[in-house]
Amino acid sequence: MGRKELAEVLTKSRFGYFFRSIQFNNSMIVGGIIILILVVVAISAPCMAPYDPEDQDVANSLMPIMSMEGGSSDHILGTDALGRDLLSRLIFGLRTSLFIGFASVIIGVGFGTFIGLIAGYFGGWIDTLLMRLVDMQLAFPVLILAVIILTVAPPSIPTLLLVFSLALWPVYARVVRVWTIVEKQAEYVTAGRMVGASHLRVIFNYLCRVLVPLVAIIGTVDIATIIILEAILGFLGLGVQPPTPSWGNIIADGRIYITTAWWISFLPGLAIFVSVFSLNLFVDGLQEGTKLERIRK
Amino acid sequence: MKNLFKLIMVPAVVFSLFLSGQAYVVQAAPEGKVTFLSAENLLGRWNAYQHTNLAHYKLEEQVMEKVADVSVENPNKLVPRLAVSWKVLDPLTWEVKLRKGVKFHDGTPFDAEDIKASIEYGTDAKKTLVGRFFPERVNVEIKDPYTVWLKTPKPNAALISTLLMLRIYSSEDIANPKKIDEIMNGTGPYKWVSYSEAEGVRLTAYLDYWGGVPKIKDVYFRYVGDETTRLSALLSGEAQIIDRVGPEQLMIVKKTKGAHVETIKTVENHWIHFHCAVPPFKDNVPLRQAICYAIDTQTIIDKILKGTAIPTHAHMSPSGLYYKEAPNAIRYNPKKAKQLLKEAGYPNGQGLPELEFITSIGFYPKTKEYGEFIIQNLKAIGVKARLRVMEVAAWNACIYIKDCGDFTDTGWFIPLTDPNAIFNMKFHSVGILNHISDTNLDKVIEKQSTIMNPTERQKYMQDTVIPALMHSVPSFPIYSALTITGISDKLKGFRTSAAGFFRIFDCTLEK
Amino acid sequence: MISRMLLNRLLFGFVVVFGVITILFAVLRVIPGDPARVLATAGTDEQIKELRKTLGLEKPLTTQYFIFLGKMIKGDFGKSFYSPQENILSLVLKRAVTSLRLAFFAIFLALGIALLLGILSGIYAGSIFDRVSLGFIMICQSLPNFWLGMILVLFFAIKLNVFPATGDHGFISLILPGTAVGLNLVAVLTRFIRLNMIDILNTDYIKAARARGIRESSIILRYAFRNCILPLFTIVTVQFGVLIGGIVIIEFVFDYPGLGLLTLNAVLRRDYPLVQAIIMVVAVLFVFLNLLTDISYYALDPRVRKAQLSQ
Known about the structure:
heterotrimer; A: mainly alpha; MetI-like fold; 11 helices; elongated; B: alpha+beta; 12-stranded mixed sheet; 33% helix; globular
């Protein structure tokens, strides 16, 4: 589909007016910049981190932040119970979180969108069946499902990706299904069908062109959801396994030192906050810029 | 006449009031409530012969009794409980005299029948877990209602001290194993009330206890798997005794008013158990030794456990009977470790699959931290290993399985100072936790328990048994933990014996 | 029309619960980890085998499944491995009530703050107050709630000793965990209320009311606010499900004896009967909740209604 055709479709789409113009605003810019910085840090982690995050140095354990009494410039953010540099661990933890976040969203949201499209487009018993499956999964609180799976299958990156994708897909399936139902009544779709476009073409060429960008915008914020979910699982000891650093792990490790070496638990939480905040800010700005906030789930 | 009457009556009334007041004072009713938070999970089933669970041991100490106990003052002395005296008649026979006037909580009187039922059931390794502490089943002959003869097929020098593993049940209860699972009926100062997941176990003072009336009325035993939570409960007054205070928490307790810690040396040892029934550790002594030489136990003790443990260089606690450092004791030596690794057939770790190291969290302090430290130690000699941290109950289920992980970290605590019981359970085929099956070890362990002369037994233990165990290392003792308990300042008289027991019966609660 | 849909949904609800239970059964029986080993940790291999026979674990899988279903219909959920003398259903329900107390407290707290902030920022949309409030909401949304919980404990329970750090001591125990749980909810609700207020205040209806000279405060309270209530109910219902999910980790951090903590411990300890009973209760609750949500969607969104009818 050419550019002109795309523009035509967008104007005729039921959701078309959202794409008419994207107004840049402060939230988008600030959020976007922070995210960019985080991504750069994560990608260049081996260069940016002053130490190997798994390097133990028990003689120097529990060192405080540089500016506090007992701190030193050797370890700007201090060390944990085994003397590992906290700054390095946070940086590598960022890498883990962002990677898992992106990958899970792509898989989970992608799968959910696919199911939603099929269900909404074909309707009938396919729709009913698929939505029952969605309901069945939604009947499980996400965390409990995750804990059950991770107690059974030892936590590894693929298992974690599976768990997080499972957490995401149902909601997207539902939402995309509703959007599909609405959108497939648009003129250009019915016109396309009359001209003889196959079901496959309608779904992948027409509907997707409109719905995928929408999903992408809304889905970005779920990277934040996954970052937090990963931190929770790590906190429970079921996420990324030691010695690989993950923010949740580090918070859990620091728990018994909360009154003496509080920075071990505090700093990763702050890191999570910054990442999630910037993602929320960016997506908020994007939604405001495209007036999408009204149809947010 | 009236005056004489008054002269006699008034003092008589006053005197009888005085007497009744005295009686009132002497028989003070128990009051108050003590809550103990345990670091190990409660099993929900109460048969005292089918577990090695420390929370249960501590609980049973309040409710049920044994023939004797380890003295609080002197760990090598025994104090009489349900037995009042014992002596060796011949190498195969011990005579034991029992205490009179004792009643079980359900009212049945205690006598020789109960001893016979308990001992014959408990020492039978085919029927009970605790039976595995005894080389063979003990036969009990009743001479009169308060005298029994214990007969063993082979001489057993450690018989009486090993019998300290058996809580005495009534013969009716032994005949009804389902009942023992559901409730504890004992002769001790506290009586079983109930158990629920939320409240834990509830006990109440047994007013007819042969040793006197307890001063504290209600006792609660609860499992709280998180050390931070246990500490909060102690500091806020919700609990009066907490298990396993870790090194970090020591400082906090010291700074807080209202609570203090008790630190004592007990016979608890902390081990690494190799799974010796399956590869790669099966029949590969150099590999096991290599791993042991690679572990820097002194740094673990000094820097991670921060002085809450002491080193041990034999397969028993330094507080145990006949302890002596093994002449071939293994001390941290990465060079030697690498050499042994080569001997084992895995030069620089090549060919060795990634090993899985299982440890617990929330139970013993710092297990996760030094677990990661050990992984680094092994990495330094070329051995790849990954740490698997499990919640206490899941860990408890995993460690006994012969192929759950490649090696495991556990503490082991048998409330006896005589190491015979540990040797039988852990190193005699088939060893519990390490599944070792080594005929040479079997021979020396069997021999040591038959030497009746203490001096000879000590020599054999120190010259033969200890070095043999250190050579084979089916398990490796990494440290001997100090038992650190957090106690409310309002609880007076609390003392833990070297066998690791405390009796709430000895305590009083201040208001 | 509506009643037929209702019946449909109810029927599907049963199917869903049934499906959940079946999948759970399959998962728990097929995974590695022997329940008998959990019960008799240090037993010998023969003892374990005996125990498996007693527990009925040696029978073929399909037989076990039908026995399991049969028992469940009679209301027999078995016994928790670690608490075999307790009635499992009453245990679960007792803990569920404890959790619900926390959940409702969190909702009321969040609702209170959200109404205040939402209505005010809706009225004064675009003002400095609005922007500060949006910033505050954004922060609320982005804070990891379990971490906030730990920080709250550090300050208010340990350093200042104002609130209890753990356990359930009545109302005072709800405050710290309730704040942590309700945190993310405040953000969602405030946004929603604010948006609704802005929309409604711009309608002709309101403009006409203003023109008729009705007092502004009256307009806000009686007209604008009233219209918020029904959609608010819908969104709270949806968010309730999310809240229940977040409650698990908060109960863990605060050692609050609710259903979330019980479930977590049950799964970690492989206490299968307890896990089954809990999931059953929760599944029924969630299906009911989803039903409620569906009904309100249907009743409120004309596009969905039209689309549904044309299917």
